[in-house]
Design goal:
The chain is mostly helical. It is 84% helix and 0% strand. The protein starts with a helix and ends with a helix. The structure holds protoporphyrin IX containing FE.
Length: 216
């Protein structure tokens, strides 16, 4: 299979996988009520929250995967994964704003101030907004190196999302701990790569100096 075909196939899998939870919820609400159960709002919140978290983790996995596999085209999955993560975060936030806060901004601000797990969830969502807005090629060009710095915010958003989940879960913290472990591995991979880049640069400097003195 050539590279173009492989990327296309992966993108099709990504779109189908990412749209499946939304399809499940829509069918549950309008066709098969059994799927969403007796408390549809709780089910909507659960599915959109979990999907956001999973897609954020997958977004963060792309760069280390490219480094490990050496297969550069995989990077083309990062943007759609990130945008789908934002889409589910927006749905998750909207469900809370519409059904729990009934569009009342004062209640919304009070809830954000009073419940720490809502505070961190909201902070994660706010961080994701500029990332989604600047994900186009035009913004990548316009922001240059600042784009990379800005988009490191996805690590902060994912961390806050995991803390939000951990604080939400009262008794069984096993699943949030799994997400914390995944995040720790991804952070570790990131730090390792940064260290390798730095030592690579340091090794090149003496070589360049020797070459320069030799040419004098
Ligand atoms: C990146 C952002 C976010 C992520 C990854 C995320 C993830 C999650 C997850 C995994 C759950 C647990 C669902 C369950 O097991 O039932 C949850 C619950 C919840 N989240 Fe978020 N969330 C985010 C942002 C937000 C925001 C912005 C709000 C609202 C301001 C919010 C409000 C809630 C509420 C109200 C619940 C359920 C509380 C309940 O059922 O009593 N989340 N979230």
């Amino acid at each position: 299979m050539n590279q173009k075909r492989a990327v296309l196939l992966l993108k099709v899998v990504l779109w189908l996988g990412a749209l499946a939870p939304a399809g499940f919820l829509l069918l549950g609400m309008f066709v098969y009520p059994d799927w969403v159960g007796a408390n549809p709002i709780e089910r909507l919140t659960h599915v959109t929250g979990m999907t956001t978290l999973i897609l954020l983790m997958l977004t963060l996995t792309v760069t280390p995967l490219r480094r490990v596999s050496g297969w550069n085209p995989v990077i083309r999955l990062r943007r759609p994964l990130g945008l789908f993560a934002f889409f589910y975060a927006l749905c998750h936030f909207s469900i809370w704003f519409v059904f729990d806060m009934v569009f009342n901004v004062t209640w919304m601000l009070e809830d954000i101030a009073e419940r720490p797990f809502i505070t961190v969830g909201f902070a994660a969502f706010v961080i994701l907004i500029p990332l989604a807005l600047t994900s186009t090629k035009g913004w990548i060009r316009r922001l240059g190196r600042r784009w990379t710095t800005l988009h490191r915010g996805v690590y902060v958003a994912a961390t806050l999302g995991v803390v939000h989940f951990y604080w939400f879960v009262k008794a069984d913290t096993r699943l949030p701990l799994v997400f914390i472990a995944i995040l720790a591995v991804l952070f570790g991979a990131r730090l390792q790569a940064a260290r390798q880049r730095r030592s690579g640069r340091r090794n090149k400097e003496p070589e360049a100096a020797t070459a320069a003195s030799g040419s004098r």
